[in-house]
Amino acid sequence: MKAAIVTIGDEILIGQIVDTNSSFIAKSFDKIGIGVFEMLSISDDKQHILKTLSSLQNTFDVVIITGGLGPTKDDITKKTLCEYLGDELVYDEAVLAHVTQLIEGFFKRPITQINKDQALVPSKAQVLFNKVGTAPGMWMEKENTVFISLPGVPYEMKYLVENEVIPRLIAKFNRPYILHKTIRTYGIGESLLAEQIESWEDNLPDFVKLAYLPSPGQVRLRLSARGNDEKQLQIELDKQVEKLHQIIGEAIVGFDDGETLEVVLGKLLKEKGLTLSTAESCTGGKIAATITSVSGSSNYFKGSVVSYASETKVNILGVAQELIDRHSVVSVEVAEAMALGVQKLMQTDYALATTGNAGPNKGDADAEVGTVVIALATPNGVYTEEFNFGQPREKVIDRAVTKALEKIYKEILKN
Amino acid sequence: MKAAIVTIGDEILIGQIVDTNSSFIAKSFDKIGIGVFEMLSISDDKQHILKTLSSLQNTFDVVIITGGLGPTKDDITKKTLCEYLGDELVYDEAVLAHVTQLIEGFFKRPITQINKDQALVPSKAQVLFNKVGTAPGMWMEKENTVFISLPGVPYEMKYLVENEVIPRLIAKFNRPYILHKTIRTYGIGESLLAEQIESWEDNLPDFVKLAYLPSPGQVRLRLSARGNDEKQLQIELDKQVEKLHQIIGEAIVGFDDGETLEVVLGKLLKEKGLTLSTAESCTGGKIAATITSVSGSSNYFKGSVVSYASETKVNILGVAQELIDRHSVVSVEVAEAMALGVQKLMQTDYALATTGNAGPNKGDADAEVGTVVIALATPNGVYTEEFNFGQPREKVIDRAVTKALEKIYKEILKN
Fold first, then answer.
1. Which of A78, A105, B122, B283 could form a disulfide with B87, with the two C-beta atoms 3.0–4.6 Å apart?
2. Count of CB atoms within 10 A of residue A227's CB?
3. What ipTM, to 2 d.p.?
4. Which domains occur in chain B, in start order?
5. For the segment A145-158, what is each residue's pLDDT rounded down to a tens digit?
């Protein structure tokens, strides 16, 4: 079972948008044991599309195409697919009724020819009905390959993959099992981690592969096992994770994609009945935004004071002006006062504070570009640490957010 | 001048990470008039890499490869490239000295064989010296194609593209001009926009292409002009933008990639000497984080109160408990009181507030999932509006952030 993903659109080739659709589709295919062997991004150009389709024909069992189905004139996918299949475009009555209802009923506008033409599909295609938008998905077969065409708008594509594509693929193909386990580690760099686990890695069985996925402040280790006996694969993965735990246990924070630091921290806070608040200067609200990206965070997160101006630190958080004058706004003393201030103000068990200079310029603070002080107020006192996260601005902010969450997570775990 | 971008790594093919490198490279190439005609993601597999390289050989002038150069064992790119070129790996003395200095001098660890092997390069390759990491880039030529291999870590790849790759490409190739102009519109959907500008679009000259790039709350229009006379292209683009302005002027907020809503709003606030604060419930700090992602935002942004808990709304923002009890926490009345509360607390000219239910569950609020109320406090009164942004949670938050920034931008522009 081999699949290829094709993305159509000049906006990807000139770098204006990042292709996130392919990643979503690959993840969905991987879960049901369909391996994606190639991803391609090509232009909105008829000859390029035709050439690509014929190069993939019969080499892949499934070719899934996103993009180029919108209502506007730069979209030529549908006509080109039709030509490739030697078919003709016809109006699909169900889609036409749906589009009409959406435009006239929901948006309260008269329907236009551009809208109506969204209901055109190749006569031999099976329509994948798009309840969340106007462009239908299409399932077409030619010789040994299934071609699936989906709109490029991410939530429409996702809806169709989950509700129409995956069930049809499961029904049509027999597939091997591919199981993955991702181990999220924080605080050890990639090379050092590689050395620490070298002998474990060398002894992995042939059907288990390891990959390192580094990103700011963390390294994820991904184990992939492939075979026909699902139970045996699961047993092997569990055994390997257990061995790994004995070597680098203290660096492991969570497992798999869903267990991000903010999710794992949220579970821990909820389980222990603890509450948290933040006082953010250089992170500008991003710690709060990250914590509240988790549904149910209102159970443990009371809020944040984003104190970008010094007067906000003084008037709302109760940081003494004299402290700022003496130590400067980016200092251990001010970070400490901010954390204690918001802990008291919001009456929470724990509080995090950040102050720093994210750059790119020195600005009014004396601190070097990249400097961030993180303070953690606990029921038993306040701890601070100073870092330099380098540049650019975006990386400084992201590393400060990750490090702050890592600090509080490890602190609570100790107790 | 045709280029292809190849990304190597199983983590992309199973959907674990999104490929952002290709987008960065494409944008950099586009700026110097090198067209990217294809992007491919392939596996860490020797045969797959060899087959891909030979299929691109002589069809493209430049093939740029990222990924697969890290210190760990899942990286086989370098050996495979060497085999493809019929070359052998040798130690590069300058790279070896750099790696040794970085590991022993900066990280204070003894150097290992894994580290040393990062200095291995094909003997005929030109080394692209990587000052910000340990894996060197490589420039290799075979027949009519230049192959460039770069590490996959985004900031190392970016450093090498900007400092080593682009200058060498400019020196080596003659290129046509490709000029782009992006027009950022807010508040009109894609289909309606397409109808409003249909006759303008039909009359665009042949060498100018238009693309629609919709995303939550906005549609970007991208004009691309290609030819040998740079000045003529620029005049034509300016003329077309001027025409477009006459048709949909009120929807246009900014131009080009850098002019995001938060940047344009920041400029306007700074220019007028106005200040802003936010009180955020359902957006959880993301409006503040978006505003402060812009360097220099401390000139106009004083801060935010992220009032996730009701008690935070009452105790810090001064929202009357009675108001919450009577109208519920997601209501026009509470949003209004939050905006006025933070405007007064932080003494700013303008203030934005959000309260809503981002979902996925109904939670303790009575409000439907997806409901968001946005309030804007101005020097002349407070305005509120209620929206339903549907699902999922992430989209609700993003649309609320965009809509809030759009509201204040358009309000200030009126005055």
1. B122
2. 15
3. 0.72
4. 2-172 (3.40.980.10), 177-255 (3.30.70.2860), 261-414 (3.90.950.20)
5. 999 999 988 889 99
